[in-house]
Design a protein that fits this description.
Layout: H1 6-10, E1 23-27, H2 43-59, E2 63-69, E3 98-101, E4 121-127, H3 129-142, E5 146-155, E6 159-161, E7 164-166, H4 168-183, E8 185-187
Parallel strand pairs: 1-2, 1-4, 2-3, 4-5, 5-8
Antiparallel strand pairs: 6-7
Helix pairs in contact: 3-4
Length: 194
């Protein structure tokens, strides 16, 4: 039996965003996820893919917005400490806004929408696929934007469910399937973003 998505049933465009015409949104690419209790599986590879895409976006004159989560002092998400800072490989340069959020959807109680044009394409990468990437893609879709999520520039971690661990790759793929079913276009590699 052939499978279809809600996107296909609704006739939504399945063409990935063009980088030069989009805003690249980097979600929570903080040191939080590179060590300790929140270390993600495959964070190094996803960081390299995101850094490559960021370099290309800057070269092509695309707008770039960095999003970080602030969990407050003493948490793994403390943006005032090294643990909560954006990883140096994808750190903002002058003129690139940094949006501070406190919930998974980066559009909630932030000024993220003010950095975007109505209905525009957004390319979303970052950490964690199943949480802030997925919920920000949903927020973008519900806000009238057209998200494309880049799988190899995202990562997550294994999660416990009813006494067993769900492997990180399965959590990652499930989140991407949810996004691709309705909220946005999903591409496997940053190389697919032209």
């Amino acid at each position: 039996m052939s499978r279809t998505t809600l996107r296909e049933l609704n006739g939504f465009d399945q063409t990935p965003a063009k980088l030069a015409d989009s805003t690249l949104i980097l979600i929570d690419m903080q040191n939080t996820y590179t060590q300790g209790v929140m270390e993600l599986d495959g964070w190094e590879q996803s960081l390299d893919a995101a850094a490559h895409l960021l370099t290309r976006a800057r070269q092509e004159g695309a707008k770039v917005v960095h999003v970080i989560n602030d969990g407050g002092e003493g948490t793994p998400y403390d943006i005032r400490a090294e643990i909560g800072r954006i990883h140096p490989k994808v750190a903002p340069v002058d003129g690139e806004p940094v949006v501070v959020k406190q919930v998974p959807n980066a559009f909630v109680d932030t000024d993220l929408a003010t950095h975007l044009s109505e209905g525009q394409d957004v390319v979303i990468v970052g950490w964690m696929t199943h949480m802030c990437v997925a919920f920000t893609a949903q927020g973008a879709f519900l806000g009238g934007y057209r998200p494309t999520v880049v799988a190899d520039a995202c990562a997550t971690r294994s999660l416990p469910v009813t006494g067993t661990d769900v492997p990180a790759d399965q959590v990652h793929r499930s989140a991407l399937a949810t996004i691709g079913d309705l909220y946005g276009v999903v591409v496997e590699s940053q190389k697919e973003i032209r």
